[in-house]
TrEMBL record:
TPR repeats lie at residues 30-63, 72-105, 114-147, 156-189, 198-231, 240-273, 282-315, 324-357, 408-441, 450-483, 491-524, 533-566. GO terms for cellular component: kinesin complex; microtubule. It is found in: Cytoplasm, Cytoskeleton. Oligomeric complex composed of two heavy chains and two light chains. Gene3D superfamilies: Tetratricopeptide repeat domain. Kinesin is a microtubule-associated force-producing protein that play a role in organelle transport. SUPFAM superfamilies: TPR-like. This is Kinesin light chain. Belongs to the kinesin light chain family. Its main location: cytoplasm.
Length: 583
């Protein structure tokens, strides 16, 4: 029920009784230590968990023969603690010791062997080695299919595990197929309000959210939430996670006030249910920080990301991947604020940890290189941006099959860099590759498809193909004005449209779109954000063309002031603004 202090209290009372009744190395002590260790693990106090699990192991090593199943159980618990700590090589080491004993002690199709394979699969999944994860999850599944009746709940767990790997690989149809197999079993064998049913609905909701089908995602997350409300006490951590899932969908939809409302509900429960330095509290602060970041409220975003970081520094070992995520999040805020040197500083800390904590082809490492690329692109250092992009692309080629949704953002960023370098054919080629992937992976009205249409439209404009440019921008707007998406993405399309109309000398329509884009950016971004300078510069060029020189001067001055404050002195944008200013 999530009441860890109560559980500890009972286990410790039991321990006191055992102490009086039995000699110090009696196997019963091992059980007590093990139980206490598991509670600490659930509380997120991993060093305490290890301490008690290791005490349990020491007793069992002395008291039991070397292949006794209880020894395997001890190795298993220690493996679990290392897995939760993000020390995956250690986790594997202990899970493999457990597997060795289990193989010797039990017949080849024993369900406990399936559990051992499943644990190893989970570590490989966390390491981003999805083919290995599938291999072990499928071994586990085969045993369960032979050893258990067709509707056994453990079979449902196996299908669910396989589904999770496919979801991580971006193979959403396969993920749904396995999650639905799992759900069918659970619907047959469990009462209608069982928490495992809620887990199934939640998993399916996650796939739909990743596919950008937000209404379906909400439908499944809400089904899950209703069960948790009936089945669990009001302050159970699962309920908090459930509110968090719903918050995530609203965040992805760009409905930030709704997202905050659900994230705050989630956070209140975590504060009541968990000790103050529990990693789940850090995750909760991170979610709230993300909403503020998306809203362009960067000081608030930093405040919450730093709260998350403080907890992780206390609760986790120094090379835990979640610590890297904290540095990454803080870096993204500085990047969004246009403070590129600060962003780089945090991205480097992020990458340093990931290189130590993760295998060299983990997709999260590719994500780090993509962040560097975006930052260098913002700084106008296009050679460095391309170098980082190539590093990301190499990792993704080893981690994923061609056409995987993960490649879309890489192609998109390649397109952006080539566009900035004025290599328009290469830019177009990459944006079209991105679109091709997104058309296969995402529903017609997904906001990411709109962004890609707008990017393609912009390259057509730069190639003087105005008719095509307008057609693609219109496709983007049709999605953005009818689906809830990030307002800043809509602003980008308005500004791209404004530029297209300016270049075709339809100045009044151009001005209308510039003003629409500017209004959103002025609301959402800090006053000295480089993206505001872009609009001021565009408007200055328009006013020059229409001979409104005082308005042109006012806008170009604003653009130059921002660029001088926020961009490196050699940045192409700053040089371009100065050139316009001198006209």
């Amino acid at each position: 029920m999530g009441d860890y202090s109560k559980a500890l209290e009972f286990y410790e009372k039991g321990f006191e009784i055992t102490k009086k009744a039995l000699p110090p190395n009696h196997p019963e002590f091992a059980t007590s230590y093990s139980n206490i260790g598991q509670v600490y693990n659930d509380m997120g106090d991993y060093s305490k968990a290890l301490e008690f699990c290791e005490k349990s192991l020491k007793i069992r090593e002395k008291a039991l023969p070397p292949n006794h199943p209880n020894l395997g159980s001890s190795y298993n618990h220690i493996g679990q603690a290392y897995n939760d700590m993000g020390d995956y090589s250690k986790a594997l080491e202990f899970y493999e010791k457990d597997l060795e004993i289990t193989k010797k002690a039990l017949p080849p199709n024993h369900p406990d062997l399936a559990t051992s394979y499943s644990n190893i699969g989970e570590v490989y999944n966390n390491m981003g080695d999805y083919s290995k994860a599938l291999e072990f999850y499928e071994k586990s599944l085969k045993i369960r299919e032979k050893a258990l009746p067709p509707n056994h709940p453990d079979l449902a767990t196996s299908y669910s595990n396989v589904g999770e790997v496919y979801n991580n690989m971006g193979d959403y149809s396969k993920a749904l197929e396995f999650y639905e197999k799992s759900l069918k079993i659970r619907e047959k064998v469990l009462p209608p309000n069982h928490p495992s049913l809620a887990t199934s609905y939640s998993n399916i909701g996650e796939v739909y959210n990743d596919m950008g089908d937000y209404s379906k995602a909400l439908e499944f997350y809400e089904k899950s939430h209703k069960i948790y409300e009936k089945a669990l006490p009001p302050n159970h951590p699962h309920l908090a996670s459930s509110y968090g899932n719903i918050g995530l969908v609203y965040n992805d939809m760009g409905d930030y006030s709704k997202a905050l409302e659900f994230y705050e509900k989630s956070h209140k429960i975590f504060e009541k249910a968990l000790p103050p330095n529990h990693p789940s509290l850090a995750t909760s602060y991170t979610c709230i920080g993300q909403v503020y970041n998306n809203m362009g409220d960067y000081s608030k975003a930093l405040e919450f990301y730093e709260k998350a970081h403080k907890i992780r520094e206390k609760a986790l070992p120094p090379n835990h991947p979640d610590l890297a995520s904290s540095y990454n999040n803080i870096g993204q805020v500085y990047n969004a604020m246009g403070d590129y040197s600060k962003a780089l500083e945090f991205y480097e800390k992020d990458l340093e940890i990931k290189k130590k904590a993760l295998p060299p082809n983990h997709p999260h490492l590719a994500g780090s290189h993509l962040n560097f690329a975006a930052c260098y692109e913002g700084m106008g250092d296009y050679a460095a941006a391309l170098k980082s992009l190539r590093s990301a692309f190499q990792i993704q080629q080893q981690a994923f099959q061609e056409g995987n949704p993960a490649f879309a953002s890489t192609y998109s960023l390649f397109g952006r860099v080539y566009r900035s370098m004025k290599d328009y054919p290469k830019a177009l080629d990459n944006f079209e590759k991105c679109l091709s992937i997104r058309q296969k992976a995402l529903p017609d009205n997904h906001p990411d498809r709109a962004t890609t249409y707008s990017d393609i439209g912009d390259v057509h404009r730069l190639m003087d193909n105005y008719e095509k440019a307008l057609a693609f921008h219109q496709k983007a707007l049709n999605i953005q004005e009818n689906v809830q998406c990030n307002p800043l993405e809509c602003a980008m399309t308005y500004i791209n449209l404004g530029e297209t109309y300016r270049e075709t000398k339809d100045y009044s329509t151009a001005l209308t779109y510039f003003e629409k884009g500017l209004e959103i950016r002025e609301k959402k971004l800090p006053k000295n954000h480089p993206d505001l300078a872009v609009v001021y510069h565009n408007m200055a060029k328009l006013y020059l063309a229409t001979r409104k020189y005082s308005m042109a001067m006012k806008n170009i001055q604003q653009a130059v002031e921002i660029a001088q404050e926020k961009l490196p002195s050699t940045h192409p944008h700053l040089l371009e603004y100065k050139e316009t200013f001198e006209k």
